[in-house]
């Protein structure tokens, strides 16, 4: 069964997730935006073997620590979708703009497409391409654990911003209703910021997508 721990990182309190297979203790880190020592400490305390980096998208608070973490451990970088290439190329400028430590661009070991899967140990997660917040945003869904790691697509009571370059509000709403809702009302999602919720709760109460 897939297990996970949420580790808030960066001044933006981004929800970096450490995910692992409880059978093999093989682990991946989703969105290592920064504060790598904090992430590494959590991995050590859990007794895990860190083997992969998965990215939902390439904004600085989600991807800023990626190149350095990959270098330290020789890790492959999986994701996001190629639509976020320009965000990766601009990581150094992003770090300057938002006052982050200098972030290096990188080339993913594997780009992701809608319908792909990723695997850590014996746990397989489905990949959905969910543009709108960024053109290349993806989410990771574990049907067995009824968990979805959705980056900045959806929040408890909110949705992702669409005013950055490449953002598109109608696309974002479509991503939520066409790609997230079919995962099931009882699926718990881990957003890029803030508290967890369920898709059912957001369908009932989130003012941006209520009743969709």
TrEMBL record:
Keywords tagged on the record: Hydrolase, Metal-binding, Zinc
Short name of any one Pfam family annotated for the protein: Lactamase_B
MF annotations from Gene Ontology: hydroxyacylglutathione hydrolase activity
Ranges of residues in domain Metallo-beta-lactamase: 13-193
InterPro entries per record: MBL_Glyoxalase_II, Metallo-B-lactamas, RibonucZ/Hydroxyglut_hydro
Cofactor: Zn(2+)
EC number(s) per entry: 3.1.2.6
Record-linked SUPFAM superfamilies: Metallo-hydrolase/oxidoreductase
Region of interest: Disordered: 193-212
Protein's name in the database: Hydroxyacylglutathione hydrolase
Annotated source species: Ottowia thiooxydans
Organism lineage string: Bacteria, Pseudomonadati, Pseudomonadota, Betaproteobacteria, Burkholderiales
